[in-house]
Structure formats: structure tokens, C-alpha cells
Amino acid sequence: MQIGIVSRTDREDAIELDCSIIKYLIENGINLEIDSSLIEKLPEYKQYEVPIEEMSSDIVLCVGGDGTVLNAQHILSPKKIPILSINKGTVGFLTEVDPEDIFECLEKLLNYDFFIEERLQLDVFYDDKWSTVLNELVIMTSQPAKMLDLRILVDDEIVDDVRADGLIISTPSGSTAYAMSAGGPIVDPRVDAAIIIPICPFKLNTRPKIVPADSLITVKFLKKGKEGVGVLDGVSTSRFEFLEEIKVKKSETPAYFVRFKQSFYNSVNSKLSTI
Asked: How many Cα neighbours within 13 Å face the side chain of 216?
């Protein structure tokens, strides 16, 4: 087995945990690939340096919060490399392992006592290209205190004309992220669906909607002079104007995560109790 390691590098406790993991894996004869940004903090392991874009490991350990996981997953997803996420963030809905359980879980990993979970992703067409999101597309106004006028279509059928601060189109994985804060439902990741959540809608009858994941969702900007901003998984952004469209569909490439037990509801309830 070959294992890659990526990590947040802005917290000393995360770096210390990385050191412990690396030593454990070396002692157990595991071939390693360590991301270049982490090697900058741990130059003594320079011989294991591989940029995350060039990793070919069987599994990649990701030490950090949901943001770290999302960044790594965007790069690794096309290669179908599963991620084992270790929480060194705040809540960490995407993370599987807490730091105090890491060595028990590493032992299970080396004994192949785990399974691979597939998570649905969405492809979003804007800027003349398709991009993939694990959590969500967020559309928001570029002008504070102004609302957007948006038309939502599902398979070319008008679902709603929305006047709101913005709109979220989320996967089940993203249902515990921004979508939940905006009043959307928590959706089991086994459900093959996309969730459409208006942000602070003007009309009381504009409510969140769950649609089949294999639908084609189209969002059209209806108002002149009201510019919108699209944000993919909290990272990449683009601006949109009158009559421009964003299209969303189910991705053919799922995300892959290492899991040790089926515990979605226990995990969500536990994490929500800490907020």
C-alpha cells in the first residue's frame, strides 16, 4: 500500500499530528507521498515529497477541516483516489477520524478493515467550462443589501422565479454546510438528489426543493443591472449578468472516502451538538 499525506499547514497541532502519522507509517513499512506544502514545514522528510497534483497513492490522508478536504478532493477526484480525512478543523462534517482515534484507525487501514464510500458530485457549467463541486454552488449578489431575480428550471420546466439574497444548489454532502445554515434539509449522502435552497427569499412560498440528481438544473439571471457572483465549494468565483445562465447536472465522477463504519446520523448529531 502507498499512502499520500496532505495537510493544513497553518496550525502547529496539525503539523505535530502529521509528524506522528508519518513516523507510524514509516515504522510499518508504508511507501509515502507527502505534499510539497507540508514538506516546507517538515523538510526532514524531503525524500517523500510529491506535489498533490502528481500523487498516485492508493489512499490519501487529509489532515484538516472541511476546506482542506474539499481542496484535496478537487485535485484527487479525477484520479479516483480515496481520501481518509482526519479532523483538524472546527466541526468537520466531511472528516471521518478525530485525532484521538487516529492510530486505531491507521491500524484498521493497514489491515484493510475499511470500506470506500462514494459521494455524489455536481458538475457546474460557467465560464464556458464544466467544473465539479462536492458541496455546493452558491449564487449571491455582488451588491450588498440588494436581491437577485433568478429563474430556476429543472429539465427545462420553470420551477420558480426567485427574488432572494442568493441561491444554493447543494449535494447531499453539502446539505450539512452552507445549505443547512440557509434553512435547507439534512440529506443522507446515499440519496441521489440535488437540493435547491433560496437564501432569504422575498416570497414566503419560495421554499427549498429536492430534485433528482440526474436532472438538468438551469439558473437564469432576470434583472438588468443586478450582477450575481457564483462560488464553487467556497473557492472559485465568477460574475454573471442579465440573461446569463448557470447549468448544473450530476457528475459522472463521484468522490471517494475511506470509512470505517456506517455512522452518518450519529456523526451529524454528534457534530451538531458541538456547535
From this structure: 8
Domains and CATH numbers, the chain: 2-120+254-272 (3.40.50.10330), 122-250 (2.60.200.30)
Q: CB-based burial of residue 96 (10 Å sphere; 0-12 exposed, 13-18 middle, 19+ buried)?
A: buried
State the pLDDT at residue 265: 62
| β-bridge mates for residue 61, sequence order | 5, 84
Closest of 214, 207, 274 to residue 248, by C-alpha:
214
Distance separating alpha carbons of residues 37 and 126, to the nearest angstrom:
30
Provide the angle, in degrees to the nearest 10, between the axes of the packed helices 102-110 and 12-27: 30
pLDDT tens-digit series, residues 151-204 = 999 999 999 999 999 899 999 988 888 888 888 898 888 899 999 999 988 887
pLDDT tens, 208-235?
A: 999 999 999 999 988 777 778 888 888 7
Please say whether the beta carbons of 52 and 35 come within 8 A: yes
- Catalytic amino acids? 66
Place of cell 496550525: 11
